[in-house]
Amino acid sequence: MIDALPVENYETLKYLLNHLLKITEFREFNRMQISNLAIVFGPTLMWTATASLNLALDMMQQNIVVEALLNHFKEIFVR
Q: In angstroms, rounded to a whole number, what is the distance separating the alpha carbons of residues 62 and 58?
């Protein structure tokens, strides 16, 4: 799915995720490890266009996706 993004969206997502990973380098000072960044940015990056019956489940899934993108950044974006 990432490869199917338009080039502009792909590059923007890559840049943003790379920046978030740089933030995690200072996690001992800012307490922003990958899981916390996923909680903060999950709803912003993975918002839904339709109303949901289970907001908590949606947020959990959003966090999982963003966390996976961050954890697997090199495999997804570095080629």
A: 6
